[in-house]
Structures are given as C-alpha cells and as structure tokens.
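Practice set, problem 2.
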Amino acid sequence: MLNQGFGMNMGEIPFLDLVTIHRELRDELRSVFETALDTAGFIGGPVVQDFEREFAEFCQSQFCVGMASGTDALRLALVAAGVRPGDTVVTVPLTFIATTEAISQAGGRPDFVDVDERTYTMDPQKLRVYLEAECTPDPQTGRVVSKRTGGPVTAVIPVHLYGQMADMDPILELAARYDLILIEDACQAHGAEYFSTKENCWRKAGSMGRAAAFSFYPGKNLGACGEAGAVTTDDARLARRCQMLRDHGQSTKYFHDLEGYNCRLDAMQAGVLRVKLRHLTKWNEQRRERGRGYDQLFGQTQQFTLPHVPPWSRPVYHLYVLQVPDREQLRKDLTAAGIGIGIHYPLPLHLAKPYERLGFRPGDFPVTEQIAAHVLSLPMFPGLSPAQQHRVVTEVLQSIAASAKSPAQAAHA
C-alpha cells in the first residue's frame, strides 16, 4: 500500500507524496478524463499512440508499446524476443518478484548472479564467472547450459535498481559473446542515464538492450493513476509482436496470428502519462537535487553506507537507500518520529518460497543477502523540502548514534 502523504500532520514526513503532485495537475488530469468520456476512447486509439511515440522519444528508442503493467511488459518482451519454454534467463536476486515472475510466466527458468556491493545492480564479473564456470557448452547448439537448471541460457535481465542503471557495457559485451537476449528491467529507472565508454556517449535506460520493460505504477518517477507499463525497443519486429501479444494475438481485429494476452494500456492511463511525461525531466532533476541534499547533510559518515553513484551513472533517485547496521531500530525510531520509510527488499528472491524448488541456500549470494538485511529507504519525492530532509537526517543520525551506544550493539561489536 502506497504511503500517499494524505492526512499527514504537519510534523509528519511521508515516504512518498502522491497527493500534492496530483493536486497540482488536477485540471490537466480532469481534461484527460473528460476527453475520454466525450470520445468514448477508452481502449487504444490516438491517445495511446501519442504516448507511445513521446515515451519512445524520451527513452531514445525507436518504438514503445504500452502495456497494462510493468510485469506484462517484461513478460511479453521476453516472449516477443524469443525466450522459449525451458530456457534459462539470468537475473539478480535483489529485485521485486515481478522480474522472476515474468521469466517463469514466459516459460523460462530464472537463475541468478549476485549484485555489485556498491551499486546494488548486476555484477558483470559475477555474470562472467557464471557463464564460464556454472554453465557448460552444448556442442550441438554452441550455447551454454546452466548446470543448475539444465536449460540453455538464452537471455539476461540486468535490473536498473532504485533509479540507477546497471553497468551495461560489460554486460552487453558478455551478452554478445554468448548470444544472449538482453532485456533491461527499467521499471525503476525512467530517465536514468549511463555513459557508454564503447559508444562514447550517454544512453538512456530503455535504449541499450534488445528491449526494455517499464512500470508506471503510481509511485514510480513516471506513474499512472493505476497500473500501466511499456516496452521500448529498436527492433520493429519485436515491437510488432508485442503489439499483437498484448491484444489477444490479433494482427487485425478478429484475425489472430498467435495466442496472446489481454495486456493493453487503456487510453485514460495513457492520457495521464502524457500529462506527467511533460514534467518528468524536471521531477527527475528535483530528485537528483534531493539526493545531493541527503549526501551533503549526511557528510562523510562511516557509520552506514550512502548510495554510491559511479562516474558512469546519472541516477534518477527513484529511492534513496541507506545500508545501516540496525535497520529494525532505525525503522522503529523513524516511524515513531512520524517519518515514512520503505524496505526494498527484505527477502532475496533466491530464498523466497516460490523458488525453493531451485535449491538455493543462505550464503549462495552473500552480497545480496547483506544488502537485503540492512537497507532502508528514506523519504524521496520531488516536493520534499530541505527542512524535511534536515529533520530526516537528524532523526537518522540520532537513532544510529543511540544504537551504537546500546549494550546490545556494544556486545555485538
């Protein structure tokens, strides 16, 4: 359930404020609804097409295909790109379960590599080790086969987490070497950028893989007023296949070239997204300013870990995440102080119940497990004020200082 900031007392600071942003856009959003009523344009049509064109341009991609959710976008991108039942798709265990649900629902088998301890995104070196040491080459197909799943490894999904892109150049190089389909999970990275040394330029999230999946869940940097998602790609055939898959496999009305799904983006959500897209660059810059504000207020602390931004990254701070020694105590203290927080994500996916069948054990992905046990997300939204940030930081520092002095912490140390 989203903490929307509604009904907050003046002294309380929400984790996310969705009320103010919609209040400011109310007239434009009402116009979207009124247009839909006046035209009876509820499914598909020019509003959806206009949003797809504009979002593709924003992402520096050739095509965008609107979907009913980010999960639909990732699942259909995998299917359209050619992932087949029994294929192994490699991703990271530090992500929302939608990443692996999409793999399984596309017929694939998820497998994991650990994340980088500083960026929290896929570690290219660990991906290389996985492909070299945890897979065996199939002499007939030339593909590598996962020793764990027994299936051919055909795709890789780097997750752009918390608003920061994964280190894409080395991951793309490995994908090319091993003939892997690369699908970006960009559901938290609308507008994030990566400096490609290979191309000597900045690239947007959603423009670097065979395709990318975006979520427009209300709390995202670009959020609908409900569920919505999109696939971006430069591959015309993949885009066309996604268009058919989202609409029952229809090439034209009532003519079905394949079995598909009902994953269409409705016109009212597309209209809402068009309105908000015009503000996204400004909002992202405001989030960057808030990120810098937190960094400056926390200073050169050694007591916990601030978000790391490598030189190749321009993150958009979907979340501002600390890694702290005693998360539970900090959570209690901030909640008692009226400060909203989030925990993303407390249980690594390789240890989640749906994946018990894969046989993973604690310790298999130590970096992910360390991060999952200690991260806590602070309030982050464009309208967050410097005074609010100052109070958040004051409460965090007081809580951590008190925890460090407690007998339990002293004994643990």
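Problem 2, part (b): a different protein.
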Amino acid sequence: MDIYFAYHLKTKDDIVIALLSDLGFESFVEEDDDTTTAYISEVVRTEETQKHIDLILQQYDIDFQVEDILPQNWNALWEASFTPVHVDQFCIVRADFHEKDPVVLYDIVINPKMAFGTGHHATTFMMLSAMENIDFFEKRVFDYGAGTGILAILADKLGSTKIDALDIEIESFESIMENAEINGTKYITAIHGTLDNIPEEIKYDIILANINRNILLQSVTGLQHRLVPDGVLLLSGILIEDKSIIEETYFQVGFSTLFFIEKDGWVCIAMKKIP
C-alpha cells in the first residue's frame, strides 16, 4: 500500500477543501479545533501537484503542517478519530468496533483506511440521506467513484440486485471489496478503473456519483449514455456556487432536476433522464 501524507490545515474553508480535492486529496477529517486534516497519496503528490498545493495554501494564507502516514499507522489513526454517523433513523455508518444501533433501519460498517467515504463529510451524508427518497428495489446501480463502497452497500441493503462500484484508486477498490464482505452484501461488484472500463451498452437504472465538480462536468456524456430513460442520477461533491453550472450542463444532454439538498456549503442533486 502507498504511503500517505496528512496535511494538517488551519482552516475549514469548503472552497479550499474543494480545490485540494480536485488535486487528488482523497479524504478530509474536520478536527475538534479549527483544523482539517487532508490526506493525499505519495503516488498522487507529484512535484507538479505539490506546486499547485502550495499555490492554493499560499493564496488562501493557510497555515499547515505535513505528516507522513505509513500504511500500518492508519488503523490506529482511524480508530482514534472516527465516530458513528447517524442519518436520522434511516441508517448509521460505524466502524466494526462500534456497537450496532437497533433503532436505525440500515446498519453500515465501514473500515475506510485511505478510501474516501465515511458519512462524516456533508456530501456523503447528503447522498445517504437522498437515497432514502429513491426506489432501489431490484434496480441496477452504478456507484461512480465509490471510495469505501458506502453508497453501494446501502443500495444493496435497499434491494438493488446489480451494483457496480467503480474507483480509480487501488486502495478504494480493495476497500470496496472488504467493506462489501463485512456488510454481507450479495450484489456488489468492485471495479478498478475509469468510466471507460464500463461498456456503454451496460445500462443502469440509478447512477450515484459523489466525486467533484470537474469530473462531473467531464463525465456528463458518459453518464448519460449509461443511464436508462427515466433513470435517476444522484450527484454530489458540488459546492453550492457550482450548482447552476452542473445543472445547466446536465440539462443540455437531457436531464431534469428532481430535488436537491444543501448542507455546509455543499449540494446534492437528484436528476432524472428525460426519455
């Protein structure tokens, strides 16, 4: 497994987090004080990427420290910082060392290691919340940029019978398989690669994409081709100020907005493919 770098940033600015996410940072943890810890792989943090990171941190006048995180240190770091996430009484996201909550409908166990997606970030929380309002029963689902597989796992629990969970990062691919097994899922297939690894002739009833603005804009045609008419597309990783450009871009290829959710400066948009 790769070595990771933890950037301890003296900020919780969503714009800074979004910019760093675009550069390949995989996970962000808001600490109790006014800091955010952002994680990036040694493989992704090239010399060119580091220049862009430095420019962003200088532009926003962010104080920071960088720490090397070896793979064997991650579990201890995770256990020390992770608390269960409740999405009302709909679902709970917890680690395997937390007790199960008998009140919630769906119990999700996530051991993320270095993969993104624990429910703590507003975008993942909103995706989980929005899924309560979508019919997944016996539906074919594509989780694009699946991270830990958290959304795919919930889709399986909601009754989906075919779920392809795709991520470009090998750590995420491994995490999806591990978490799918921990949760006793039946219908999740983990795929390591890009959108090009999903043939266009494969069609889905629902596509879940919690990534970032740039990838969502680049993927508009690819996602449109892989969704059935009247299919549902659930998008997040979008700052509120970028909502209009995302919607306008997807409107142009035949989507309409069903509903949206806002939280902490981020937005989650549910869209429908017009027949």
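Answer key, part (b): Residues 227 and 262 are 25 Å apart (CA to CA). The mean pLDDT is 89.
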